[in-house]
Amino acid sequence: MTASPLWHPYAQMHTQPPALKVIGGKGAHFTLDNGESLLDATCSWWCMIHGYSHPRLVAAIKSQADSLCHVMLGGLTHEPADRLANALVRITPTGLNHVFFSDSGSVGMEVAMKMAVQYQVQKGHPEKHRLLSLMRAYHGDTSGCMAVCDPEEGMHSLFSGYLPRHHFAPAPTAPFDAPRSAVEDDIQALRRVLEAHHHEIAALLMEPLLQAAGGLNMTSPHYVRAARELCDEFDVLLIFDEVATGFGRTGKLFAAEHAGVTPDIMVLSKGLTGGYLGHAATLATDRVYDVFLSDDPARAFMHGPTFMGNPLACRVALESLAVFEEERYLEKITMLNEILRQELLEDPDLHAHPDVEDVRVLGAAAVIEVYDSTSLKGAQAFARQHGVWLRPFGRWLYTMPAYITTPDEMRRITGVMKEWFRIETH
Ligand SMILES: *Cc1c(COP(=O)(O)O)cnc(C)c1O
Asked: What pLDDT score was predicted for residue 426?
């Protein structure tokens, strides 16, 4: 067999077994070329929130393809982009009134960071050109994003000599349901970094409530609220990266809603199109947008990805939102959350297992964290034998299922996750 020229992500091509070949999918399952059907516990890096082959999403793409597949947004506009921008303003926290499209989560974050730095320059603060991020953060794989990912665990330490230097505050440690007093240490740690460095910080970036790729690290809405207050106190913009948390993952449409907070800039991607096409949106408040208004063309926001506002992506995003609202997805997410809590959080045997350090659940996301990553070696192959696609990373065995996952399917996923610890021998 000749090796495929296809270079896979995060893969040691020398040692990794050949990738499984997917030929189709329906609902929460995808199908391999050998006829095997796998229940996807990860909904393809958390984006396929409606599952595979959703008839309404597929139809939306087909009908849009018949009229307009692509046109640039430079000097031109079209109905899908206008409608999606309006829809996003309607559903996101009050005050985010302006929408800049791009083609992926990483680029959406690049747009947010560039916007924040230019905002500060045009406000007369060119010295505020660094960013403040959190340890355990993940904001994407492009250079600008790598520089605000966790510098040690974020897969990017190799590039530290190449990347710009930013500031980092400790990752919050208080859990989602912690009382305010238990979050005080996390908040004070953030305050200390701002006190020391605010004069050179343009913006604080965070994945509100759920640091997803950082190991599904969860925090309290009190922390998010305090971050808003601290940013106002120190004249620093607040950027929410809701690429993973947006569109229901934490149990509300956006994680920001748990805290009742409007960030200055917010980034959406992954679930935006229901995963059917790559796209992202960077939203900004009037406060940010107005600083770019001037008679001077040089004060405009100088950015413009070729595929921003792609009509197919906008059209399928509109359909995704319509399905989300009409089919009451937030109720489906509540149902999935109840099962995840019952089956994982409230399982005493799982907590008592010597390899298990912690079990966390928030919305339609759950993780079993182990002390040592070697205890998850073989878990993926084990799950496959049971018809489930799990893709643990580091010390984290997790599920972030499609919202159309049925109760039985959800229990099959949690069953396999628990069964791994029952059969496992060390
Ligand atoms: C996936 C992700 C990104 C990057 O999105 P891409 O579309 O892969 O570039 C950024 N931030 C968060 C929180 C993510 O989960």
From this structure: 44
Sign, CA dihedral 205-211-213-215, equals: positive
pLDDT at position 216 is 98
Give the per-residue pLDDT at 4.
86
Shared fold status for 25-43+330-408 and 59-326:
no
Q: Which residue stretches of the chain have pLDDT < 70?
A: 1-2, 154-156, 424-426
Closest to 278 measured CA to CA, from 306, 257, 251:
306
241 catalytic? Reply is: yes
Contact 258, 85 (CB under 8 A): no
Give the nearest ligand 1 atom to 213 CA: 15
With beta carbons less than 8 A apart as the criterion, state whether 379 and 420 touch.
yes
The top-level CATH class assigned to 25-43+330-408 is: alpha beta
Per residue in 304-322, pLDDT tens? 999 999 999 999 999 999 9
Tens-digit pLDDT profile for residues 335-394: 999 999 999 999 999 999 999 999 999 999 999 999 999 999 999 999 999 999 999 999
User: Residue of the nearest CA to atom 11 in ligand 1?
Assistant: 139
Is 52 noted as a catalytic residue in this protein?
A: no
Q: In what order do the strands lie in the sheet with 22-26?
A: 22-26, 29-32, 37-40, 388-389
Residue with tokens 């958390």: 46
Name the nearest CA neighbour of 269 among 286, 289, 257, 283.
Answer: 283
Give the residue extent of every domain in the chain. 25-43+330-408, 59-326
Instruction: Write the DSSP symbol of residue 341.
Output: I
Domain 59-326, CATH: 3.40.640.10
CB atoms within 10 A of CB 285: 20
Which protein residues touch ligand 1 with a CB less than 6 Å away?
104-106, 109, 138-140, 207, 212-213, 241, 243-244, 269-270
Tell which atom from ligand 1 comes closest to the C-alpha of 45. Answer: 1
Sheet-wide strand order for 365-370: 356-362, 365-370, 396-399
Q: Residue 347's CB: how many other CB atoms inside 10 A? A: 18
